[in-house]
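Structure first, sequence second, as always.
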């Protein structure tokens, strides 16, 4: 669960603020495709908070 930074400023967070935020969330972006026939959503991860996900394509039902 995210907690507000004491400073109220993303760029003035403490090391613990960043650890708390990164360990409680995941974020990625990239194109997605909806296949209505298969009832799936496919995400292509071009940018990710978790670098190992970059380049992956994941399918959601």
């Amino acid at each position: 669960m995210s907690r507000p930074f004491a400073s109220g400023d993303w760029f003035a967070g403490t090391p613990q603020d960043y650890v708390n935020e990164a360990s409680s969330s995941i974020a990625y972006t990239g194109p997605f495709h909806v296949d209505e026939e298969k009832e799936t959503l496919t995400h292509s991860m071009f940018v990710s908070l978790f670098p190992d996900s970059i380049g992956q394509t994941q399918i959601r039902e």
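Margin note: Residues 27-61 form one domain.
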